[in-house]
Amino acid sequence: MPEQSNNKYLVTGGSGFIGSAVVRHLIGRGDDVLNVDKLTYAANPASLADIENAPTYRFAQADICDAGAMQDLFADYQPDFVMHLAAESHVDRSIDGAGPFIETNVVGTWNMLEVATAFWRSRSEAKQEAFRFLHISTDEVYGALGDEGYFTNQSPHRPNSPYAASKASADHLARAWCQTHGLPVIVSNCSNNYGPYQFPEKLIPLMILKGLAGEPLPVYGDGSNVRDWMHVDDHVQALMAMLEKGQPGEVYLVGGDSERTNIDVVDGICDLLDEYLPDSKQQPHRDLRQFVTDRPGHDFRYAIDSTRAHKDLGWRPQESFESGLAKTVRWYLDNESWWQPILDGRYQGQRLGKTGEEDTA
């Protein structure tokens, strides 16, 4: 891998949750970054306020589906690495309308692979050897697990939501461009991320902000669905390890080794709010829990076997779920200036993905 001062990263979706964490990390360690983001509803330039004036940071508002725009950016910037994070990512929204997911996650990924391949072929042999295209995906492509077992590299893709199907399609495209065209692609499938700067439609920030406001905390079904949770900063470190030590054509599964039921996550947030807000009129916050009609096609359990990442990349998560959740709750309490404009504007915490069904307590 080139010396850090020479590294040039093209990051798609760098104004989103995980993407902004990647960009902040890269700029913080002195790398050059081009953030390519369409700035859809979940993107937030405020997530990059601390680094937006850094001399090594560039931003381009562009759609990854726009081939001409992507070709121009590649030609002008000449990236050494592509980190492809741009995606529509909320399952509930995919239930309401799958079109944007197919367009961005499938067509957009195909377009990025096409443009990257042409650019890669134009480079010197040494630069071709060093180039990497890292496609960041999700464990949801593998479908649902029962009470036991883990997703591994041998697990078949069995997506159950429109979102998961669109990401599974993108995974297959990424593999095909590596196998057919030789593009040095690495694929990452990760577990549920959480942490600061996450758009409040997702479970953890939504529960924090609703709890802070004293509003009901909607829990799907009986709350027994299980997810493996990973702090976003641990995920960033995993992605860096893939670029440094990963092999083209490989798929790396990374998780936080922190399986929790949804109700346990919500209870943990409630208990932290009780602790951090001792003078709140809403005590205990667990009284705000409200069980609602389950999401259609709600996968029961996800869990990742990260053995390959541990062995081949030397990566392990550093944050426990308890320590990471405590830091996350504290961050949202301390950063109203980041999330309040979102609630005042493009998202007010309403439920999505009900397919016309009404909630029941």
What does this structure look like?
- The structure is a single chain.
- α1 links the parallel β1 (8-12) and β2 (32-37).
- This protein has a domain at 4-195 and 231-258 and 302-320: NAD(P)-binding Rossmann-like Domain (Rossmann fold, 3-Layer(aba) Sandwich), CATH 3.40.50.720.
- It is built from 12 helices and 12 strands.
- It starts with 7 loop residues before the first strand and ends in a 17-residue tail after the last helix.
- α4 (99-121) runs parallel beside α6, α7 (203-213) packs across α9 (262-276) and α9 packs across α11.
- The strands form 3 sheets. It has a 7-stranded parallel sheet, sandwiched between helices. Strands 7-9-11 form a 3-stranded mixed sheet. It has a two-stranded parallel sheet with strand order 8-12.
- The protein has 361 residues and is α/β, with parallel strands linked by helices.
- It is 41% helix and 16% strand.
Essential attributes:
361 residues, alpha/beta, Rossmann fold, three-stranded mixed β-sheet, 12 helices
Structural class: alpha/beta
Distance between the termini: 54 Å
The count of DSSP E runs of length 2 or more, i.e. the number of strands, is 12
Note the total helix count. 12
In the CATH hierarchy, the third-tier topology of the domain at 4-195 and 231-258 and 302-320 is known as Rossmann fold
Q: Strands of the largest sheet, in order across it?
A: 3-2-1-4-5-6-10
Oligomer: single chain
Radius of gyration: 20 Å
Provide the β-strand percentage band: 15-25%
